[in-house]
Amino acid sequence: MAPIGAGAGAPHSRIMGVGAYRPSRIVPNSEVVDAIDSSDEWIQQRSGIKQRRFATDEETIQMMSVASSRIAIERAGITPDQIDCVLVATVSHLLQTPAIAPAIATELGTEHAAAFDISAACAGFCHGVALGSDMVRGGSARHVLVIGVERLSDITDMTDRGTAFIFADGAGAVVIGPSQTPGIGPVVWGSDGEQYDLIRQREDWRDVVGSDDSPGSGVMPHLTMQGNPVFRWASFTMAKVALEALDAAGVTAADLDVFVPHQANMRIIDAMARSMKLPEHVRIARDVAEQGNTSAASVPLALDRMIEEGDARSGDTALLIAFGAGLAYAAQVVTVP
Ligand code: COA
User: Fold this and answer.
1) Is residue 42 lining ligand 1, measured as CB closer than 6 Å?
2) For residue 295, which atom of ligand 1 is closest to its CA?
3) Are 12-179 and 188-335 the same fold in CATH?
4) Domain 12-179 sits in which CATH superfamily?
5) In this structure, which residue's CA is closest to atom 36 in ligand 1?
6) Nearest to 54 by CA among 62, 64, 39
7) Distance 227 CA to ligand 1 centre (A)
């Protein structure tokens, strides 16, 4: 048996830079209420959402990804040719294959970086951070670009009362690279396929196209969601997962400076913070009010806003957690770059 070289990774990993792209078109609640017989007051009270942003035709998945990534790469102090792998978390790239990641990697000017998409819905970005961190430590990449990007407006039924006011568009990116000290804690992640149908694409492509036996629907297979059970699962089960991620990293809630949960809904964010008994000094991301729920993009967008507004400072200890369709979830403690 020939000995196989093990390869050498970095001792630890860290987030080196964060970037974001927020689409140009601001959509206030007043623009979505008529089609769902709702009101600005109801939406704000039940979700905390005041407005969201929808991408224009020019603001494609690729365009928003490249724009957010260029900022993250510049802030990381590296150049695109130093990126060895591009991971794109998304559920709204509308081509079944190929993945969008290779096109993004090439437009950015990476030198044939490995590139693939992650399908873990709203949890996809935190899955990407976990994978990127392990790649850097395992030696399969020195720098990994992780992007969360969505155009949920393309796959949302604007007449569906349960989803039309929630989902939105945008992109966020981070560069993960080597570190002498731990900058990304162990991931706590998992899934629950018993709740597979709670958030899902309404039907698969065969049902849209149809067959000899049955005509297809011919309409875009929109997202559907059973809001109530999702709300309960997110508020309580996910708070436990968040506490497990603190434990795994060997820190307590008192050590935290910043909490960046998936921006699903302000009531879920508040319920999680209460259930985790987060101390007063912990600053909590509340990007959902301005941005809506951008699925895979929500955590990097929220982290970026906190950095931009001075609520998250370099060296701060932050807890990230994301959860959604699958059901899938992932959480980790990170150091703010
Ligand atoms: N506008 C106005 N009224 C609405 C409405 C809307 N868009 N949607 C539902 N209602 C009404 C219902 O008809 C019902 O009226 P009734 O009490 O007279 O029968 C009432 O509001 C309550 O409906 P319900 O479906 O129980 O609402 P809810 O309190 O569960 O709130 C959500 C709905 C979607 C805001 C909530 O379930 C939620 O936030 N879920 C989690 C969603 C989420 O964040 N998902 C992403 C996870 S990744």
Assistant:
1) yes
2) 48
3) yes
4) Thiolase/Chalcone synthase (3.40.47.10)
5) 227
6) 64
7) 6
In the CATH hierarchy, which top-level class contains the domain 188-335? alpha beta
The protein residue with its alpha carbon nearest to ligand 1, atom 21, reads 42
Q: What is the pLDDT along the chain (337 residues), one digit of tens a residue?
A: 898 887 789 999 999 999 999 999 999 999 999 999 999 999 999 999 999 999 999 999 999 999 999 999 999 999 999 999 999 999 999 999 999 999 999 999 999 999 999 999 999 999 999 999 999 999 999 999 999 999 999 999 999 999 999 999 999 999 999 999 999 999 999 999 999 999 999 999 989 999 888 888 888 899 999 999 999 999 889 999 999 999 999 999 999 999 999 999 999 999 999 999 999 999 999 999 999 999 999 999 999 999 999 999 999 999 999 999 999 999 999 999 9
Residue 7: burial class (beta carbons within 10 Å; 0-12, 13-18, 19+): exposed
